[in-house]
Amino acid sequence: MKTFFKVVLNGLLFIIAGVIVFTTYQFNTYTPHAVTQIANPTDLKYFQESYVDCRRHFIDEADKIKETYKEVQISALKIESLVDPDLTIDYCYIPAQKSFKRLLILTSGVHGIEGYVGSAVQQMFLSEQVKENSLDELGVLIIHAINPYGFKYQRRVTENNVDLNRNSSTDNSLFKSVNKGYNDLNAFLNQKQKVSLTSFGHFFFQITAIQKIIRHSMGTLRQAVLQGQYQYEKGIYFGGKALEPSVKILTPLIQQIAEPYDMVFNIDLHTGYGENGTLHLFPNPIKDEKKKAMIETIFSGNSIDWGDKEDFYTVTGDFSTYLGDIIPEKLFLNMAFEFGTLDTQTTLGAIKALHNVVIENQGVQYGYRSEKDEKEVKSRYLAGYYPSSEAWRSKAVEDARQTLLQAIKKYRETNIRE
Ligand SMILES: [Zn+2]
Predict the structure, then answer these.
(1) From the CA of 237, how far away is ligand 1's center (Å)?
(2) Which of 65, 217, 289, 319 is deepest in the core (most CB within 10 A)?
(3) What single DSSP character describes residue 29?
(4) What share of the chain in percent tops pLDDT 90?
């Protein structure tokens, strides 16, 4: 009998060891499924490899349409910084040419590093799509690089380690709020030592993550990590202690430009969430059924992630909702475009995406054991928000082209009394 138990126990240990080896191998060699479409050179010309180049191309595209419309404003807001005197939020505003009915605000780079793709989409929009729309009753405001520090230095967050999509709120009590679920995970998410990719904690990150998923469920965990936290200044998904300079400086500009319009529609461009090579429409939940119906009409034929999917979460202090809050007298609609990269709808993809954020932040806060580790961490991080694949980039622009074309046409037909 004793021998029987021994055999069973050994068998079990063997299976457990096998599972650990298998998932560790999968995790450390993880790549999302490939995007196979043939890249179109017309799409690729909108991509550049630095913040300064993206900004220059954005301004060039804006300059090209300046003469076509009345009263076009191309300008920049300087963001004060302790490390860089050349950080700007650039914008191009084309007022409605006859009557101020609807305003479209197309924003990029709220999460700095996601601005490479955001800039490409904005350049495409300026180059191809402004002229496709009658601007008689539609004003267009295109804002480039809302977090220029993160864009230039390839981080999601600002110079103050703040995630602008957790920071934007008209109510200061947000900064005192406590995310209890995050507190329990803090030690796991924010290790206080130099990054070494071969350390036990990182090499076996997925094992700890899976243990936590089993204990708390994926949904609870995702929500706790991603919703935003206001306690740990050096931690991931930190929402700040007060409004960040970018949000502060944009507030009066948005209020002033939106002032004459009846309706305002914001499309905020992001990357990193969802299936690789897929454009996801990912709004923060809306209670107002009338607005929800309007958004569904604008994006009819597209699938909107309203929160019924497995990988859904909500955030506190998101920038787009804030835009609506600072112009409360306007009918405000909004949508986030998320260009997926790492297949975060899968468990392994989600863990990989989280790990990329964890190690990048740990490296910034506490340094790296070796240059090799630093290079590897930074290149993994960039690939999660700005894939180098030409097929991926081309598809992102093409998806944006189709979706924006339809959405703006429908928006132009939307009436406030619907
Ligand atoms: Zn984002």
Answers:
(1) 11
(2) 319
(3) T
(4) 78
Query: Could you tell me the distance, in angstroms and rounded to a whole number, from the CA of residue 312 to the centre of ligand 1?
Result: 14
Tokens of 383: 């690939």
288 token code pair: 């107002």
Query: Using alpha carbons only, how large is the chain's radius of gyration in Å?
Result: 22
Q: Give me ligand 1 centre to Cα 285, in Å.
A: 16
Name the pairing type of β-strands 88-94 and 138-144. Answer: antiparallel
Q: What is the DSSP string of 111-134?
A: SGGGHHHHHHHHHHIIIIITTTS-
Q: d(Cα 412, Cα 398) in Å, to the nearest integer?
A: 21
Ligand 1 centre distance from Cα of residue 134 (Å): 30
Q: Which of 23-32, 172-181, 314-323 has the lowest mean pLDDT?
A: 23-32
Q: How far is the CA of 295 from the centre of ligand 1 (A)?
A: 20
User: What is the three-class DSSP state of 197?
Assistant: coil
Output the CA 344–ligand 1 centroid distance in Å: 13
**Chain-wide mean pLDDT for the chain?**
94
- How many Å lie between the centroid of ligand 1 and the Cα of residue 46? 20
DSSP string, 307-370: S-STT----SS-HHHHHHHTSTTSEEEEEEEEE--S-TTSHHHHHHHHHHHHHHHHHHHH-BS-
Report the CATH fold assignment for 49-156+262-312+330-341+390-418: Aminopeptidase (3.40.630)
Closest Cα to residue 351, out of 200, 207, 237, 216?
207
pLDDT one-digit tens code per residue, 133-155:
899 999 999 999 999 999 999 99
Would the pTM count as exceeding 0.85?
yes
Residue 417 pLDDT exceeds 80: no
User: Cα of 327 to ligand 1 centre, how many Å?
Assistant: 23
What is the crossing angle of helices 218-226 and 180-189, to 10°? 90
H or E segment to which residue 297 belongs:
helix 289-298
Q: How confident is the model at residue 311 (pLDDT cuts 50, 70, 90)?
A: low
Report the pLDDT value the prediction gives residue 332, as an integer from 0 to 100: 97
How far from chain centre, in Å, is Cα 323? 16
Query: Residue 222's pLDDT is what?
Result: 87
